[in-house]
Structures are given as C-alpha cells and as structure tokens.
Design brief:
- This protein has helices spanning about 40-50, 70-80, 95-100, 115-125, 140-155, 170-185, 200-205, 225, 230-235; strands at about 5-10, 20-25, 30-35, 55-60, 65, 80, 160-165, 190-195, 210, 220, 240-245, 250-255.
- The relative contact order is 0.18.
- α4 (about 115-125) crosses α5.
- The longest helix has 16 residues, at about 170-185.
- It is of the alpha/beta class.
- It binds adenosine-5'-triphosphate.
- Adenosine-5'-triphosphate binds near residues 38 and 42.
- One of its GO terms (molecular function) is ATP hydrolysis activity.
- It comes from Marinobacter adhaerens.
Amino acid sequence: MSRLHARDLIMNVPGRPDGFPLNLALEPGQTWGVLGPNGAGKTTLLHTLAGLLPARNGQVRLNESPLPRMKRRDIAQHVGLVFQERQDSFPATVMETALIGRHPWLSPWESEQGDDQARAQQALAALDVDHLSDRLLDTLSGGERQRVAIATLMTQDPNIWLLDEPTNHLDLHHQVKVMNLLRNQAQFGKAVFMCLHDLNLAARWCSHVLLLYTNGDACWGAVEDMLVPDALERLYSQRLMTLHANGVTVFVPAQ
Ligand SMILES: Nc1ncnc2c1ncn2[C@@H]1O[C@H](COP(=O)(O)OP(=O)(O)OP(=O)(O)O)[C@@H](O)[C@H]1O
C-alpha cells in the first residue's frame, strides 16, 4: 500500500497567483475525479503529484518521503501516470509498449521475463487490445492507443494511478469498461486520481472529487458533497440541469 500526500501544495501554473493550497492524501481504495475548466491546472497538478514538475510551494510526499528526494525508479514503483498527450518517438508494437510498464521493476540490463509478458498480456486483454499485440502503435486508432496507455499503466502495477482524461477518445462501451476497471483497481487497494471533463462519469464512478477553479481556488471531499449544482455552475461558468433517473443523478448543460 502507498499513500501520496499533497501538503500545503501550490502547483506552479505560470502567471497565476498562488491560490488555495492543497492538503489532501490519496488513500488506498479511493477513486478521485479532478474537475475544472480548461486551463485550471489539472494536468499541472497531475504532473506535480508524479514528481515531473516542481511545486511552487509546499510538498508532495510519498509514504512520508518528499518526492524530490526520491529516485525516479523508486517513485515509478509506486506511482504511474497516463498522459493526456503522447509522443511515441520510437516505432514500437503494442506488446513492446505495454512491457515498458515493467521497466521500473527490472535492473538496467535485465530483459522482461515470462511473468512480465504474462502481466502485459493480461492487461492488454483487460483493455480489449490483446488482438493488437503485434501491431505498431502508430497504426492504432485514438481509442485503441488510449487503451494501450492504460494497459501499460496496469502492467506497471503501481499503487497510485494518475490518469489525465482516461476516457479521451473512448467509445461509450469502453468508457464504462475503463471506469469499472479503475474502480475495481481501487477496490483491490490502489488509489486512483484522474482528471475528467465528464461530470457524469465522476458522479457515478468516483468516491472523491477535487474542484479546481481557474483562479487557483480549490475544494475537495466526498463525491456527494462536491457535486452540487451551485458549485459546478460556478466551476464551469455554465448553467446546468440536474435530472434523476433510475436512482442516478445526471448533469446536463442548459442551453
Ligand atoms: N510551459 C508553459 N508556459 C506557459 N503557460 C503554461 C505552460 N504550461 C501550462 N501553462 C498554462 O497553465 C495553465 C494550466 O494548464 P493545464 O494544462 O494544467 O490545464 P488543464 O486544467 O489540464 O486544462 P485542460 O482541461 O485544457 O486540459 C494553462 O493556462 C496553460 O496555458
């Protein structure tokens, strides 16, 4: 089990005042949704939590160790990140890409073993891309590539999963499949923290929500306390209609 803790964290969004410091811990079993308008700092926050960007103030601690004092490989054994944008510099097959997830667990000259292959195979199957194992990544559709990226994170098997808009490019069936998979991972002890633009996915699949405002304000808590129409309308500068169907609350933008 791992715990990632943002302590008085001010992320470094260029040109923006400090805003509200974040004090939150990602605990095993939790599924967090980070919501906010374009430019609010969601990606910046994810990269700061992964130790890829320095904080302007405050700290990110992994099991009480400040991230900047840790080796990248040690961080990668606990924390994994699915990026919003991917640049694949080298031609690689789907299987080779998934196996990159094992690198934090291998010594520098060690190659992947049968167990690593089995993990990658299992992850690709869980994301319905195992039939594409031998295909070059740059021949895949957007949704297939997104599912390979999530399978690579699953192959890495960190305790803390950070995902930047994991349902980007996915059809409805795969949105549901991926959100179920993420929630299952949390139920097995992972902590999941993901940026989302879809309020309804957050409402149905997240246990906790962080609202990030463009001016640096932030608030967070249990999903039922955070997804209230007034707060969401202020967040997006957009009027919403709230509907109830089959015991589910649905938010729809008013015209
Ligand atoms: N290198 C940079 N130089 C200048 N501004 C930057 C840089 N990187 C990010 N920003 C700005 O910081 C702000 C936050 O960006 P970030 O990508 O974190 O937003 P976001 O909430 O993830 O947005 P989106 O919903 O559009 O993905 C944006 O206004 C962006 O233009």
